[in-house]
């Protein structure tokens, strides 16, 4: 829920939904208010006109004339909604279609009440005006608005239905807006994911518009063009560096070999051999560092082909078995079935060899090597029964030239696991170090 509440797409959809609902509610409530006020005003006008007619009758002939005009008005079939009541100053009902003066009618201003008319079985809502004449006679005039209120009620029911429809349409509008944004940004996200996996040729597809999404796509494409150019320059630079450094190192070794042949004393030969070993180690470090740089830059993906990881792991284990026997260890291949994935065979083989070599150098007991399948990935696992690596030092073991104190007694430059991590990244996976209880388990995943 917290993750969804922080989603910009969800917040935008909620904003569209809220604005749609607010707009619909304002329109419907405004229509209802205007309609109800208009109906009340019309009923008030009818009651006022009826009052004026009756007052004209009273002015021309007194109470008797008032009563005749009232009865004539009630006899008219074209005025079925009229309300009239004339009460004499002695309290008797002189004329009208209401049995008695309503107790909640205030003399003067119009009011809305609900009472029975004569010969009616149900009370009715009406708009009435109460008047007291100079001689004490009371006059009540009004207009029944029961039908109008029923219309307003029907309109309210229609408004509720309209609000339900508005809710559905607002939800649809919010969903459509969210899908539109997700689709436009999804292309950019897919392109970035493909480039992250090593496909530097991918670019965001543009529609040719002039909105923010197009501007973002053009900016991302420009950035990817720049990255591709830099990676190309890096490849040229690393290839040139490798060539330039290997040549003097090779000449240095040839010179040392001649010095070894010309050495007359045993001490001189030993010193030359040590210098040759250091030269070979330096050449190996250079080669490994260049491999790591190229893998992290995505170079090598073009050589992907179907690779049987189970067979490859078994071959690497066979290659290291004599060395394991010399160290008093054993290598056991855990059969995980045939697993074939698209990969760079040479780099995967080097990575597995580095993992096994690391286990032989710093592990103990039985070295278990195997392949496990999971949803969307394959894992190559190398586990040993040695002392392992504390959780807080595992990140140090994965850094370039990172060597733990216990590893400094062995030959190496601290690049073995760094190369494994770079190869895993090239194949869309990761390298994780865990606790084998006891020992260390290294898990290199490959996306499939």
TrEMBL record:
EC number(s) reported in the record: 2.7.13.3
Location(s) in or outside the cell: Membrane
CDD domains on file: HATPase, HisKA
Residue ranges of the TM segments: 157-178
A GO term for molecular function: kinase activity
Enzyme class: transferase
Coiled-coil intervals, chain numbering: none
Protein name (record): histidine kinase
Lineage of source species: Bacteria, Pseudomonadati, Pseudomonadota, Alphaproteobacteria, Sphingomonadales
